[in-house]
Amino acid sequence: QEYLGAQTLPLKPCLAHPLPSTMEEGGADASNAEVPPKEVASEPAADPGQGKTDGKAKSKNKACFNCGGDHMARECPEERRTKATVQGDGVASGERLKELVVPLFGADRNLGSFPTKLHSDLRHLVEMCRRGKLPRLDASRVDTLQAALAASPSSPCTSLAELRGLVECWRSENRSAFDAESYYDGARTAGYTEKLGGGGSQENLARRALQLCSLDTSAPSVARGGGREGLLAVDLGCGSGLSTFVASRLPGYNLGVIGVDLSSEMLRSDAWQELTAAESPLAAERVRCDLAQPLPFRPGTFDVAYSVAAVHYLAQDSLRHTAAQRLDTLLGSLRSCLQGAARPVTFQAFFTREPKALKLFTEASERTGWALCDLVLDRAHGGSGADRDFLYLVAQPPPRAGPSRPPRCALHRGTGATCAVAVEAWAESRGVPPPRLDASHREWLCREHERFAKRLVRLQERCGAAGADGAPLQLDHAAPPDQTEAALARRLAALLKVDVAADAARATERQAQIIAALHGSGESWALPP
Length: 529
Description:
- Residues 1-60, 82-92 and 521-529 have low confidence and may be disordered.
- With 529 residues, this protein is α/β, with parallel strands linked by helices.
- The protein has 18 helices and 13 strands.
C-alpha cells in the first residue's frame, strides 16, 4: 500500500512495485518499467497495519459476488459447485448454473440451480402453474425443462407434475396463514381502492353479480303498491366499499346494504366517505366480521346476498379449522340470515383456478341445506376480458317441478359450467327469480352462442376432410371433435343452413334453436331426435 498524505490507497502489487527481474530481462518493452501509483480520492487514513495479512496487501474489492465471502470469485467453493455438469436433452454439459429464486405467494421460493438460459422458461412455467393453466411452450422446450428438473440435485421437485403440486402446496400454506387484518395496512388499502375503483373491474363484477341475484341494474323496479321496491342486502367481503357502492346506487330500488369484512383498515377507508354522503338506506353501514365465523345477524334478515372476489379464500384450511368447517359455517349461517322469499345468492370468486374450491363449496351447500349450488361463467365487461366465475346458489326448493339444475352449456364444456342464458331459462321454468341481464349483454351472449356454433361446424368440416394421402386432416390449433361434439355439429349445421337474411322473426327463432341445441338435454348434451 502507498500512503498519500492523510489518505490511504490500496494498490495491487503489480502496480506498486517493479516487475520481477525474470521479466525485466525480456527486452526493452515499456511495460516492464515501474508504473507510478495514481492519486485517486479514497477513504480517510487508517492504521498502517490495517488490511495486511502475512505481509500481503488485501484489496477492499476482494469480496466474492457469489457468496459475499472474503475471497475472489474464481476461488469460491460455491462457484465451483455451480459449475457442476447437468445432463439431459437440450442442456449442454458443463454449463454454468445459477440458483433460480421466484417470488411467489408472498415469499421467495428457491427452485434450485439451473442453466441461466432456462430461467425464463422456468419462470413462465411457475406462473402458469400458479394460474392453473398449461404452459405456452412447444413440446421440445417442455421436454428440456423436464430433463433439467430431473437432473438438478438442488431442486425440490424432479418433474413438472411435482412442480405443480409444490406450487399448490405453497398456495395452501399462504392461504392458511393469511390474515386480512394484518395484511391490509393503510398503503395497501389505498392501492387496492385506486387500482380497482373508478368504474374498474370490481364495480363491473359487482354489477354482474347483482344481475344474477335478479336485480335490475338499469331500469327502475316498481313495487306492488307503487314506488321503488325496498330490499336489504349484505355484501360479504366488502373491502373498501367498491361493490357496496354499486348496490346502494341501483336506480330502481330502495336498497339498504350492510358491508361485512375482516380488515379494519378496509372498513376505515376514505372511499366510504362518498357512500356516507349518499341518500340511501343504511348508507355506509359496515360490520367487522370473519366470514369463517357465524354471521352476526338475526334469522330472516336479508333479501339479497352477494360477494365479489372474497369467499374463495375460505376453501383453504386455516391454522384452526379445515376448509369444510369454514364453508359449513359461512353457508349455514348465511342461509339462516336470508328470508324465505330471498333472491338467489351470487358469489364472484376464482373457483376454476382453485383445484378443490368448487367441489368443497358444492359439498358444503348440500350439507347445509341449499337447493342449488352451480357454477356460471360470464364476462363482466359485455364481451371483453376473460371469463369470470360466479357461484349461483338458491336457498329454498323452487316452487315448480323441473330439472334439479340448469343445463350445461357447450361453450363451457371444459369446466362443466353453464351460462347466464341457461340459468335464466331454468329459473323462469322453476319459478325462481331469474337473472336480470341488461339488454346489450344478453344480446352479446346470444351472438356468442351463434359464433361458437359456427366455429364447431367449421372444425367438424375441416377434421372430416381428407388430405392428399386419404387420411383425415389433423389441425394444429384444435383437437378434433369427439363423438358428442360431432353429433352436435351435425345438428347445428342443419340449423345454420336455413336462410334467415330477409326474415327477422325466423332469425330469432333459429337463434333460439341454436341456443337450445348448445344447452342440450342432460349432462352430455344429448340431442333431441
